[in-house]
UniProtKB/TrEMBL annotation:
<dbReference type="InterPro" id="IPR010419">
    <property type="entry name" value="CO_DH_gsu"/>
</dbReference>
<dbReference type="Pfam" id="PF06240">
    <property type="entry name" value="COXG"/>
</dbReference>
<protein>
    <submittedName>
        <fullName>Carbon monoxide dehydrogenase</fullName>
    </submittedName>
</protein>
<dbReference type="InterPro" id="IPR023393">
    <property type="entry name" value="START-like_dom_sf"/>
</dbReference>
């Protein structure tokens, strides 16, 4: 599965970059995220509970950041195991472009799933992935833009 898009965020690029590297902000924004902790300089451990179709699973996984180019972007990749439900793994290239006082966040994602969740069909998995990505970026935008508005007030 592949997905790409962009999100306009009403905050300067440096602030968006800092938020993309803040585990607490990411935890708030990732749908179903129960925990997200730094385990190394560019590594995190995550627990995420998701419902895909009729299957609800808790995924435990690791996330790594590579190709780090502050404050322009990075590659984020991860893999999670959900027990009998299966696994999910993938990554995204994320880039940040300044546009006046705003920042345009571009993303290009690739992901794959296996196990029970893969048997649900690509249409359901793709629509669920797009929905989850939409929820993440809407919340991320709200948190970063809101924090920026509060700082200016």
């Amino acid at each position: 599965m592949e997905m790409n898009g962009s999100e306009r965020i009403q905050a300067p690029r440096q602030k968006v970059w800092e938020a993309l590297n803040d585990p607490e902000i990411l935890r708030q924004c990732i749908p179903g995220c129960q925990s997200l902790e730094m385990t190394g300089d560019n590594a995190m451990a995550a627990t995420v509970k998701l419902k895909i179709g009729i299957v609800t699973a808790t995924f435990n996984g690791n996330v790594t950041l590579e190709n780090i180019d502050p404050p322009k972007g990075y590659t984020i990749s991860g893999e999670g195991k959900g027990g009998v439900a299966g696994f999910a793994k993938g990554g995204a290239d994320v880039s940040l472009e300044e546009d006046g006082a705003e920042t345009v966040l571009n993303y290009d994602c690739k992901a794959q799933v296996g196990g029970k969740i893969a048997q649900m069909g690509s249409r359901l998995i793709d629509s669920t992935a797009k929905k989850l990505a939409g929820q993440f970026f809407a919340k991320f935008n709200e948190v970063v833009s809101g924090a920026n508005a509060n700082a200016q007030a």
